[in-house]
Amino acid sequence: MTTTARPQGATVWLTGLPSAGKTTVAGLLRDRLRADGRRVEVLDGDEIRRFLTTGLGFSRADRCANVRRVGLVAEVLARNGVVCVVPVIAPYAESRDAVRARHAASATPYFEVHVAAPVEVCAARDVKGLYARQAAGMLTGLTGVDDPYEPPTDPALVLRTESQTPWESADAVHAMLAEHGLTRRAELMTSGVDSRD
What we know:
alpha/beta; 8 helices; 12% strand; globular
């Protein structure tokens, strides 16, 4: 029986304020990696809350529990050869650090990417209407407005989405993964196969 080596997986965690561009960048990155021939999963924050962490609210403890649960799923997928892209706010450093430690314990690559757009830019985009609801007094606990967001102090990459297009941001993440041998092109180059065939 012949076995082929499984490609190395990784987790790319896109953290940032609501409407910073995390989900858009995640979708473009997913498409780019699939075109490279990689197995990719996007763990969307809204879907996770709807199906995996339905019992959790938005207290600090619940937000941390949510991030840890998503981190567990991401680490398991990444450990098994999937590139897992996670566009989840993850506002608190302690929960992001716990996810990083989980990946380190299994020697699974983990990249924290700060999708850094100022709150004023995010509020102007207001993709889901959260900022308008908060301003109208219909919503409390909005990350970056009346609930804290702790920006990463040492991210693998910072995306300035107020001045970059979504495609430029996705390209920057793809280039970072290529530098670490985590794209098909990089794997072919390191194996000596001419990728132009």
